[in-house]
Amino acid sequence: MNVPAVLDHRDLGRDMRIFDTSPLVGPGLPLWLPAGAAVRYELEQYAREVALRTGCEPVYSPVLGKRSLYERSGHWAKFADDMFPPMYLGGPQGASDIAPDGDADPLVLRPANCPHHAMIYASEPRSYRDLPVRYSELASMFRAERSGVLSGLSRVRQINLDDAHVFCRPDQVGAEVRTAVVAVLEVLDTLGIEVSYLRLSGRDDSGRWLGEPAQWAEAEDALRAVLDDVAAPAGLPWHAEAGEAAFYGPKIDVQVLDARGHEETLATVQLDFNQPERFDLTYVAASGERERVVMIHRGTVGAMERMVAFLLERHGGRLPFWLAPVQLCLLPVGDAAVDELAADLRSRGLRVRVERDGSLGNRIRLARQRRDALLGVLGTREAASGELAVTDPASGAKASVPFAELGDRLAEAARRRVPRVAL
Ligand SMILES: [Zn+2]
Fold this sequence. Notes:
This protein is of the alpha+beta class.
């Protein structure tokens, strides 16, 4: 079998001017150039839309917090080595660990957003009728990766994550997980990413699981029911793996193949019995008793860096039309006037580039190297007939499209998030 040559996202990133790094800023801290920012902006907008549509309320929280927050959450004990050193406001550690406000608790850059969202949940008393509560945030988290392992967008020190946390009653777990898995499958489909299978990671007979066995059994049954319900209609297999759960709760992983044919987990819906325990997150049940809430971690697009790296390689740089940094490259020939056309298209939110300098052949080569979605040649013949000669370099399809139709057709394709514009 021929293994297709895979273009590395770092090479594509350079050709397409997606990101750059600067020795002065530091390794693992990519700068998003305008073309990359355009892709990320579209992904973020989409993630926000899906989060809203699935009942999330947007929140904002700080990128740092006191170390004691992460001691309470358990992150400090487990991930301190992967976190940046604590910041002591009173001076470097050792000199003084007492901050001017008398607080000896240093600040840390967060390794995860969950504890902040747990604190938002805890900011008011909750009744069983208020649940589920769902918070979403596109926010940064940090990892003190060693310089040697840093790579392009795939291993970085600041991760920008599309993240959501659901706080619900045990009897709501099934419906919430279902919503989350359906949202992930829709998003991956729109991104042109084929899912291989779904995986339920549950507990085994060992005693290393946090919480009551009955709680686990109920949760795993709910996840199984979701998978039975969702996987088959989507034509996807699923299987369970006993003993693969996190100690704090079962999860569903969405498995895909990357451009090299390696299996990867691109999204996870994770139940968490631990954070509610550690932060004492409760609600008042119908009985009047305080009951422990269940937390679910979910996202759709996930980490912007990782998703953009994945998409670039998966599509060989030829991103779906709605994500393409340049959706149409206009190539005027002679003194054809394109400014009005370009301004009209841009006013509809389309990303249009005008390439004027050099031979037509050279300009086409540059546009192909940038993976511009469509090329539009405008010579005297086209100007006279009021049509643009449009080519899709990915498929080779060509068509003459009247100026009057062009804006509507492209804007509609972008709005519907279609992979390609039908020419
Ligand atoms: Zn989380």
